[in-house]
Amino acid sequence: MTRVEHLRNLALLGACAVALAILPHALTVYLRSFVLFTMMYVVLALSWNIISGFTGYTSFGHVAFYGIGAYACAILVADYRWHWLPTLGVGAVLAAVVGVGIGYPVLRLKGPYFAIAMLGAAEGTRVVATVWDGLTHGGLGISLPSAETSLETYDAMLVLMLLTIVVAYGVGHSRFGVRLNAIREDEVAAEALGINATLYKLAAFVLSAVFPAVAGGIQAYKVLYIDPPSVFFVQITIAMALMSMLGGKGTVIGPIVGAMLLYTAQELTWVNFPTAHLIAYGLFIVLVARFMPRGLMGFAIDRGWVRKGMIH
Amino acid sequence: MRSTRGSSSSGSDSNQRETSTHGGLGMKTAAILAFAGALAALFVLGVGTGWAGHRPNNEVLVGGAISQTGQYAEPAGRQVYSIKLWVDEVNARGGLLGHTIVLRLLDDKSDIQTSIKLYEKLITEDKVDLLLAPYSSGITEAVANVNERYKMPFLAYGASSTPIWEKGRRYIFNIVAVAEDYQKGAVHLARQIGVTKAAIIGQDSLFPRQAGKGAKDWCKKLGIDVVLEENYPTKQTDFTALLQKIKAADAEAVFSNSYFADSAAQLRQMRELNLNFKLYSSTIGPSLPNFPEQLGATAEYVLGFSQWEPLPKVLGHPGMQEYIERYEKRFGEKPNYHAGGAYGALQVTEAALKKVGSFDNEKLRDALATMEVQTIYGRYKVDARGMNSHEGLTFQVLRGQRRVVWPEKWAETRAELPTPEWSKR
Predict the structure, then answer these.
(1) What integer pLDDT is reported at residue B225 of this predicted model?
(2) Cα–Cα distance between B373 and B384 in angstroms, integer?
(3) Residue B341: how many CB atoms within 10 A of its CB?
(4) Are the C-beta atoms of residues A211 and A159 closer than 8 Å to each other?
(5) CB A167, CB A207: distance < 8 Å
(6) Assigned CATH for A3-302
(7) Chain A contacts of B106, Cβ < 8 Å?
(8) B10 vs A56, which has greater pLDDT?
């Protein structure tokens, strides 16, 4: 793609940003929360996609970083009286450090072994949050001081989402991204070509850990009460994976579209069919898996709606 | 699905443009259109399901979000039964202050985030006239921030953790006995049989830890030495090491703040290891309907706690008999204490509304804070924090039956303690 096209995409993103920045003032608090959580899932799916879509290492434990961010925010705000914004930075740094700690050994594993190891890592983090009573209040959870936060948290999530999109887009269109794709397609061949696979994988992993941590922090300040089962909830990881796969993993647009569609579909089914929403949701996933195994983007590419080979 | 189509067709349009301009714009446009489509769909939906401020046909909108799926679906489902029963009864006798109740009961999927969002929806979008409470201490703790912000009171029937009421909140009240009192009866009974050393164990989450704190305080008050105190992770099923530790610490009684799986595992392993204690008490497990059947002889002599039991002759609260009959007729089972608590809370709310004479939230709040009401669940009168002084009861599993043994005024029989050795059970 040429520079002009990048600039045009950036301009489009900017227009979106302006629209989304004005939007909340016209919305009820509920719809504001809905858009906020939709944006949160865009962030989560896009981040997951960096390690699992671009690099091909399917992570089943990304909720660990989300939980770390949530706890960093809750502890610093509730126990140390910090303003909530700087706590997001602390969460991001912490997630990066933990990301290196987990990633360095675990990224040596491949395929299902990596997926299982990540599942274990996330469970481990949850147990640490439960047992480390002095810091996290264990199973009691942490209640944050009550405040009307819907506009602040909305704006923060919007900024985070834009940042994540720009970074994911940047990765997808850079040599870095091409090298990640090379690792996904054939790691041995990529190394033979001189790519330092370990370093690249670790970088992708850390990058994909940072944004969920910030998202977790924002959601903690939005919800104002967290405990280990609710922020280390395995279903959040599953949602990240499902959303990316629905949209088309390994692309930049895919996870964005997937997150918006799946979250909206979920909301519509349970508002309209309160007792049957799980069935409707499950059916939706089955239909997608059956008819669009490569996600919406793969579906579109196969039918020539999107230029072949253009996966970003 | 409309957005799907939107994204696909726009993808095709821009694809044609792209071929002439070598552009990579299609997907971006698609994404924007999809987002716009999703939002538009939501607006339409919001308008479609939203209720006007003034309701037609003399109706009043009563709403809440309670777990109908997920981990809390079982206990919360009993409360849904009571809510439905109450709504139909009120409508049959002419409605709430003359208005027919329209019930809007949403499902929070046992998830805090969803619950927050749904209460925001009920308050700001559906504009309900009266709020109902959610289920579980964790969810109630989170929701309490939302209704507080909009100054809409509700009477909680699914939360018993004191910290919720210790943050100076004005719009949340409680009807059930607090977690700290779940072991009160068991500690008293332990004292009666001369226990001097006890162990307090429990699952590591909000409610069991509060119960453990209460047990410790009661032990202190009654002069029982707590020789061991330990919380175990939520899904632990192997307690052999912990049980050995309790024995080594020389404890005579075990106060276990546990649910079904953990208390069942503790008892079975105590039996396998032949560890004998004078008394074993669990907060939740023994009060669940199938506990005595599933554990058989192992459940014998175990003490448990209940907020309420469908025993009109024992408890003697007004209207109990009729409520139990109507409930059983409609749902084919006797109400348990979750159901009873929800129904009692609704009775209080109805009485408060009658006293106020309108759906004025501020006045309703004041009424809930000050009034005293007798319900099928017992007496309602809250303290300055908004907590009721509801008294629960302690029972013992005796020959497969739960028999109330404490407090003495409700005791059906004398507690058979100390527990005989395993070989004699």
Answers:
(1) 96
(2) 16
(3) 31
(4) no
(5) yes
(6) 1.10.3470
(7) 270-271, 274
(8) A56
Where along chain B do the CATH 3.40.50.2300 domains lie? 56-176+354-380, 181-306+392-424
| pLDDT band at residue A216 under the 50/70/90 scheme | very high
Interface test with A, best of B66, B117, B232 (most A CBs within 10 A): B117
Residue B8's SS3 state is helix
What digits encode the pLDDT tens for the residues A234-278?
A: 888 988 988 888 888 888 888 998 999 888 888 877 666 666 767
State the average pLDDT over residues B263-276.
Answer: 95
Question: Which tokens sit at B286?
Answer: 């023994």
CB B25 within 8 A of CB B32: no
Which of these CATH numbers, 3.40.50.2300, 3.30.450.30, 3.40.50.410, 3.50.50.60, describes B56-176+354-380?
A: 3.40.50.2300
Rounded to two decimals, what is the model's pTM? 0.80
pLDDT tens digits for range A175-215: 888 889 888 888 889 888 888 888 999 999 999 999 999 99
- The nearest alpha carbon in chain A to B18 belongs to A307
B142 and A310: CB-CB below 8 Å? Answer: no
Instruction: Estimate to the nearest angstrom the gap between the alpha carbon of B172 and the chain centroid.
Output: 14
Q: What is the distance in angstroms between the Cα of A198 and the nearest Cα belonging to chain B?
A: 31
d(CA A201, CA A103): 8
Looking at the complex, report in whole angstroms how far the Cα of residue A138 sits from the nearest Cα belonging to chain B. Answer: 7
Residue of higher predicted confidence among B158 and A276: B158
Partner residue facing B30 (CB), from A141, A219, A253: A253
Contacts of B124 in chain A (CB under 8 A): 28-30
Instruction: Report, at the CATH architecture level, how domain B181-306+392-424 is classified.
Output: 3-Layer(aba) Sandwich (3.40)
Which of B113, B148, B152 should be substituted to probe chain A, the one whose Cβ sees the most A Cβ atoms within 10 Å? B113
Chain A positions touching B141 (Cβ under 8 A) are: 141, 143, 225
